[in-house]
Amino acid sequence: MNFVTLAIKNLLRRRGRTSLTIFGVAIAVAVLFSLLSFNSGYEKQLSGELDSMGIHILAVPKGCPYEAASLIIHGGVIPKYLSNSDVEEAKKIDGIEVASPMLLHQFYKDEKPHIVYGINIDDMRRLKPWWQVEGRFFSQTEDNVMVIGRSLAEEEKLKVGDVLPFGPDKIPFTIVGILERTGTGDDEFHFLPIQVAQRVFGKPDQITTIAIRVNDISKISEISKELENIPDIQVVTMTQVMGTIMNLVGSARTLLISVIIVAIIISVLGIMNTLLMSVNERTREFGMMKAIGASGLDIGRLVLIETLFITVIGGVIGLLFSALGSGLIEGFVKGIIPYSPTGKLMTPDPGLIGLCLLFSIIIGFVCGIYPAIRSSRLTPMEAIRSNLE
Amino acid sequence: MNEEVIIAKGLTKIYHRGSEDIHALKDVSFAIGKGEFAAIVGPSGSGKTTLLNLLGCLDTPTRGSLKLNGTEISGSKEKDLVKLRRENIGFVFQQFYLLPTLTVRENIELPLLFSRRNGYKSQIDDIIEVVGLKSRAEHLPGQLSGGEMQRVAIGRALINEPKIILADEPTGNLDSATSHKIFQLFQSLNSKGLTLIIVTHNLELAKSAHKVIQLRDGEIAPKVSSRALSKKARS
Q1: What's the total number of domains in chain B?
Q2: How many interchain CB pairs under 8 A, A with B?
């Protein structure tokens, strides 16, 4: 027999209480892991989403540019437009590799929003060289054809070659291609040649934004200044978009973090209270142990091992909880946060798993050290006297 | 004359409760020889427990001298008391205090964990046999009778090969037939040379002792003869 087996047998003695305490630790660790994982996943996914656009600058119509840009990258529609001539002006600026006009339109089908991107396919394929398609891309001169995202195809049960009535006049459109999954918002969208979109939705010469990629990213600010000389245009860089979105979600994250800190403090106090109760109940037992030769250090060590068992097992269970329930937690948090990137935000990160296990060990020490010191200082005489005279 | 394992001179123990001083023991002196069987008797509140705690190195006296195997306990540090306990004392309690999730064998083995001694299986088996629990070795305390539980506690007290067994009301929770068997076990251990000190209300048990220390109000009462105890036990 050793201290570890003795600690395990002691914990098994009070199965109900031990399970509840482990459950308390598991919840604290699950909450912590989910938050940290969400936090790092959010920034990673957001910056990944912005990178995957292959765009350095968005030229948007004047007025509330940052919010407009945030909406555009997620398929939102703004009520102001640029014109074809603005695109021509932009293309004249030195250092611009691609200036691709886009028209965004939103319509509802079965109460579900659908996003339509009118694009220049050649520009778009230069901006997003990773795009792969089942079927084919349309050419810019084709009419009544579209490419759709993979998720949209699955949801609507559409396949290459299908013809569907489209637009306010229900014109038959042929799906010539379905994008291979990108893990971004593109999976949800309809893509049409821009001039077709302008015609179908009655917006001739209107453009929602110009997506711009520059040859040299160190020139972004110079090029931005030149773009802003075009009267209708306001410029938003992707760095600014990221900053705007992070600000938007900042207050929600602060609130979440505060709630979680309070939850963890309550959990730690609960665990400590349970351990103290358990130590108090075992006063006579510890007295007996001292009488048969245990030192104060032995008793303290036993209490600490028991506590660490509870917290480490709780930590592992908490991590399993959050792994299994990550979908639910993600859905809940996404509902609270004003903007969330497409794709899975909570991904298992070995560093975070290690950090959470370390956290559970620290909880163990924090919660266990006081009961351990208290029990180790117990004088054997006090402990067993209640049963004597 | 027997070698003396315990020599108490002018033992005094005062507890402080609030502003009040409680004199639990007042100037108590006695000696117990090696292999002797001593009974500590007295009414409740007479100081029996306090004396047992001092003898068991669970506490130190306020005044006076207490030598255990020649080592002075007065003023000793907790660390030294722990060492003295491990090497010299085996404790038996009225309430047994067995750990319910440990088997008979594991309960008996428990002190070896604290003394960092390797318990030889044969040594543990021998003790299980001495206390008559061979067929119950893998049972849990909940499956044992009161007498069997006390036998486990006695086995636990013996595992570290102590020089002295201190027993606090060892038959207090047992019926008379079981008490008699436990008493016989103590007698057989004593006959093998183990020093035995028992705190008891059981006058039958006390009358068999070589030495009776009767306490009253924290002091040693006038000597009690075994005959007087027998008479008291019969009445």
Answers
A1: 1
A2: 87
